[in-house]
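User: Hello! My lab partner asked me to get a predicted holo structure for this protein. The small molecule is adenosine-5'-triphosphate, SMILES included with the sequence. Please write out the C-alpha cells.
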Amino acid sequence: MKLLFYDKFFESLINLPKGIQKKVVDFQRKFRENSKSSGIHLEPIQSFKDSSLRSARVDQTYRAIIKVPESGETYFLLWVDHHDKAYEWATNKVFQWNENTQSMQVFAAPEVLEKEFESTQEDGLKEVQKLFSEYSNDELLRIGVPDVLLPSIRIIDNLDGLEKIEKFLPQDTFENLFYLADGASIEQLVFEIEEGKTEAVSADEQLASINNQRSFIELTDDDLFNEILEGNLRKWKYYLHPSQRKLVDGSFAGAVKVSGGAGTGKTVAALHRMKFLSENKSSGEKILFTTYTKALTENLRKLAADLEIDSKGLTISNIDALAFDLVKNFALIKHDYKVFGLHSIKDSKEIWEEVLSTELSPFDQDFLFQEYEQVILYHDVKNIEEYLKAPRIGRGRAISRTQRKDVWNLVQKYNNTKATYRFYHKEELYNLLVNFLEAHETKAFDYVLVDELQDFSNVELRVIRSLVPEKANDLFLVGDPLQKIYDKRINFSQAGINVRGKRSKRLRINYRTTEEIKKLAFSIISNEHYDDFEGEKEETGGYVSLFHGKKPQYTIFHSKNQETDYVIGEIASLLEGGYKPEEIAISSRIKNGLKDFKSALHLKGIPYTEYEQGSKVGHQNGVNLLTFHNIKGLEFKQVFLVDVNDRTSPRHFETLGSLPDTQKQAYIKSEKSLLYVAVSRAIQRLEVTGIGTKSNFVNI
Ligand SMILES: Nc1ncnc2c1ncn2[C@@H]1O[C@H](COP(=O)(O)OP(=O)(O)OP(=O)(O)O)[C@@H](O)[C@H]1O
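Assistant: Hello! Below are the C-alpha cells for the protein in complex with adenosine-5'-triphosphate.
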C-alpha cells in the first residue's frame, strides 16, 4: 500500500495546536506502516458527496480525511481538522482522477458551483459572449476541465467571472483556463500537459506523473512533518509545479534559459536542478552555481543546505569572486594588480584625463571612457583591425574610419598608462580569463547554473560560456528581464550561448505573493518594452498567483513624522500579533530614506538589521532595513516601501530633465524595474508610504 500526501493537507496541519500536530505525525506513520492496523478506523460518512472519502480518528476530537482506492493500493491523506470542521471541509469536495491530465483533481461538487453561478453571473437575458465559446468541449476536456464542470465553465462571461470561481475549480484547470483567456494557444497548453504525463499504463504508476506530483507525493520519512513541528515548513523542497519539475529532471541538448516574472520559482527550480545534477553526475564532475551579488550567493548557499545537496564537487560563488579566484589560480596577471571600482585607486576617467593631458584630441574623457567600456571591453577588441570592424550599437554618435584610428591611438596610450599602475577593469580580467580558458581548452566545470541572469553583462556571460564545455545540460540560466536594473547590454548569441526556440522556457505561477500584489507589480512595468536578451519582446503579462490577500495600500502623509509613526506603529502591532522582526522589511529607493525609520525603531527598542554591500551587518534577526537595490532576490511576509513619491520614484536628479530622450526613457524604465523588484518582494502584505506628491508609477 502507498500513502500520497495532498499538498493542502499540510496547510490544515499547520493551523492545529502543537500537541495535535504530534498526534497527526504518529497517525500518518502508523498508517504508512500498516493501513489495516487496529488503531485506524476508516469510516464512510453519509453526508460526503464523494463516496470514496473516509474519516479517520486522530484522537477523540480530531479527524483526518482520507481517500481510499477504488482499485489499486494507493490512499490519499487529504485534510486534518477538528471533527466538525474536517467534515465541513470534506462534505462538498470531489476528488477525481483526470485521464487527460494524469492528475488527481480536487474541486467543489458541480451543484455547489451551479449555485454560485446563480448569484454571480450577469443577467441571463442579456446576450453576452461567453469567455470560452470559441473552444469545443473536447478542447476544454483536454486541458483538464472535469467533464462534470463543463456546463459551469461554458457560462463564464469574463476573466473576473473566472477568478470568482477559482476556489471551486481544480488548480490546474483554473491555471489553464486563465492562460487560455489571457491569449495562450490551446495547442501549447495541450502540449505542456502531454509533456507532464507518463507512459506507464498501471494506475499506480500513473500517480507518479509529473502533473500529479504537483499536489500529491509519497513521503518515506517524517522530514516534512518535523519542519512543521519546528514551525518552518518549506513546501518548495517537496512539491514542484509540472513546469518546474520538467526543468529539474529534463535532459537538454545544450543550454537552457528559464525566464519568468518575480516569484515564479526560478531559483527553486535551479536549486532542484543542481540537486538533480549532483545526484546524477559522474564522480569527479564539477558543478558551479553562480549569481551576481554576495547577498544572493549567501541565500543560495542557505537554500542548497536546506535541500541537503551533497556539497562534493559543488561550488556556489558569485561571479566576481569566482572569476578573480580563477584569474589568480591561472596566474594571468601580477599579484599586485588593482581593479577599478573594487580597490581604492584612481578611477578610470582620471587615467583618461592623464592621457588627454598630453594629446590634442576632439574626444573628451567621458566619450573615451564609454567607448572603452561599451565597445572595446564589451567585444574584447584586441587590435585596430578588430576595432575598425567592431559594432558600436547604442553609442549614439557615429564616428568615421579615420576617427576610429585616432581613438585607437588613444586607447593604446590608455592601456600603457594603466599597465604602469597595474590597474585593470574588471571586464578586462574577465576577457583575459575567457581567452586563457579558450586557448588552453581548460574547462573549469562540467555544469553551470546561473541565477538572476538579467544582472550579468555580455562579458560576464562569455566567462560563463568559457567555464563549461558545450554539451548536453551544460548551462542552466534563470532570470527575469523585467528585473533588469543595471545598465548592461545582454545578447546571448553574441556571448556564444544558444538558447533560441525550445531552449527558452518560462515559469508562470507566482508562488511568492498574492494576486493583488502581483497585479500592482506588473502594472508598474506593463507599458515598457523589454528584450528577452535575443532581440525579441519579453512578455509582461500572463502570470498568475494562486492566493489572494489584502489590496496593497499607498498612503501619502503630511509630514515625515506622521509617516514614520504610522509605519512603526503598524510594525509594533505586527510584532504583538506574533510576527517575527525578520519577517518584516522596510525598504526605500535611497539609503537616506531609511534614516528616520531606523531612529524610530531604535527609540521603540525594536531590533533592526542593516545591510552593507548586500550583507547583513549588526543584529541578524531584526526588522530588515534595505534599499530597493538590496532587497532584490529576497522576500518578506510584510513589506513597507517608504519614502515613495514623485522625487524618489523615479529618483530625481538635477540634470534628469535635460537628458536626451532615449537616455531619459532608459532611466525611467530602469527605475520602474527597480520599483517592480521592490513591490514583488512582499509575500502577504505591501504598504507604500511617502510624503509630498504621489509617484505616478504606483497606480493605487
Ligand atoms: N513549487 C513550489 N511550491 C511552493 N513554494 C514554491 C514553489 N516554488 C517556489 N516557491 C516559493 O515561491 C517563492 C519564490 O520562489 P523563487 O525565489 O524561486 O522565485 P524566483 O522566480 O526566483 O523569484 P525572483 O525572480 O523574484 O527572485 C519562494 O518563497 C519559494 O519558496
